[in-house]
Amino acid sequence: MNYRHSFHAGNSADVVKHSLLIALVRALQLKDGALTLIDTHAGCGLYDLHGDQAQRTGEAMQGVMRAFADADPLLDDYRAAVRAVNGAGNEGAGNEGAGPLLYPGSPRILAQLLRPQDALIINEKHPEDAYALRGAMRGTPAAVHERDAYEFWLAMLPTRTPRGLVVVDPPYEQTDERARITKTLAAAQRKWAHGVTVIWYPLKDRSAHVHWKEKLRRLGIAKLLNVEHWLYDADQPGIYNGAGLFIVNPPYAFTQGLPPMLDALREALAPEGHRGTLKAEWLS
Ligand SMILES: C[S@@+](CC[C@H](N)C(=O)[O-])C[C@H]1O[C@@H](n2cnc3c(N)ncnc32)[C@H](O)[C@@H]1O
């Protein structure tokens, strides 16, 4: 387990993933019934964008900083979630126009969205990140676990509340990561067919990706949506070309609002000289 999200926090993939997570939870919350939010690969929870690791890659410049330089109101909820961990001071005097100093990971964003009836259960296996996560989540109602994500994912299902959301956001540093996801998702569907599940993935090698998409399609999930963000106008072999999400059972209000939101995100995040594509399609 070498991956550390602190090198990548607030990059373009985080902007898309976190914006869509907020929209998804808000769509689920149009109904009053309690929700259980589960994060299988939670990371550290809070990241210092001016810290050594973030500065070394500079990835936030192509992500959250672009989102803050953009004024589209469809990104307001996302920007508000980032502002919420910065407090007035960090974006106030002395830091005007410089963007946020701190970046909230998925568990801190989910914690902000909780209503009194909702629950948040999060998991991180790396001991140092799990320690940081416990610190970052202090004062929130989150229950923190330190287990293997795939064992944890199945152990949490079915959720205690009738409705819930599982977020699966692995680093893909193990060669069997996609196979483990496919296997665990198939088992999760048997235990919890009506639940909402979001799976993030990076786009590098198109053929490996097409092959995996076909495997997921063959699981026969009735409502499986695929959102894919290609950053460049032509793929650049061997490098990071963007990211995607598989979303099982997205609520109707979420899918209805998706096209303009994807357009706003694509436009805000387009690298210099590229338009890119950011689209959703049903795999079922
Ligand atoms: C991409 S990061 C998570 C980022 C976070 N979801 C966010 O959006 O802020 C992936 C995390 O998964 C953790 N991880 C990797 N393999 C794991 C496993 N088998 N079980 C649990 N956590 C794992 C890594 O330590 C890393 O912190």
Polypeptide structure, described:
The protein is an alpha/beta fold and 284 residues long. It has one domain: Rossmann fold. It contains 10 helices and 10 strands. Strands 5-4-1-6-7-9-8-10 form an 8-stranded mixed β-sheet, with helices on both faces. The chain has a two-stranded antiparallel sheet with strand order 2-3. Helix 6 (127-136) links the parallel strand 4 (119-123) and strand 5 (143-145). The two termini are 33 Å apart. The model has no long low-confidence stretch (mean pLDDT 94). Bound molecules: S-adenosylmethionine. Residues 1, 3, 5, 14, 17, 41-43, 105-106, 123-126, 129, 148-149, 169-171 line the site of S-adenosylmethionine (SAM). S-adenosylmethionine is lined by residues 1, 3, 5, 14, 17, 41-43, 105-106, 123-126, 129, 148-149, 169-171.
Secondary structure layout:
Layout: H1 12-28, E1 35-39, E2 46-48, H2 52-57, H3 64-69, H4 76-90, E3 102-104, H5 106-113, E4 119-123, H6 127-136, E5 143-145, H7 149-155, E6 163-168, H8 177-191, E7 196-203, H9 206-217, E8 224-230, E9 242-248, H10 252-269, E10 277-282
Parallel strand pairs: 1-4, 1-6, 4-5, 6-7
Antiparallel strand pairs: 2-3, 7-9, 8-9, 8-10
Poorly predicted ranges: none
List the secondary-structure elements in sequence, H or E.
HEEHHHEHEHEHEHEHEEHE
- The overall pLDDT average reads 94
Radius of gyration: 18 Å
* Ligands bound, unique: S-adenosylmethionine
Strand order of the largest sheet: 5-4-1-6-7-9-8-10
Instruction: Find the CATH topology.
Output: Rossmann fold
Determine and state the CATH class: Alpha Beta
Largest sheet: 8 strands, mixed
Please report the number of helical segments.
10
Shape: globular
**Whole-number count of domains:** 1
CATH architecture: 3-Layer(aba) Sandwich
Helix content: 40-55%
Class based on secondary structure composition and strand pairing:
alpha/beta
Strand content: 15-25%
Number-wise, the strands total: 10
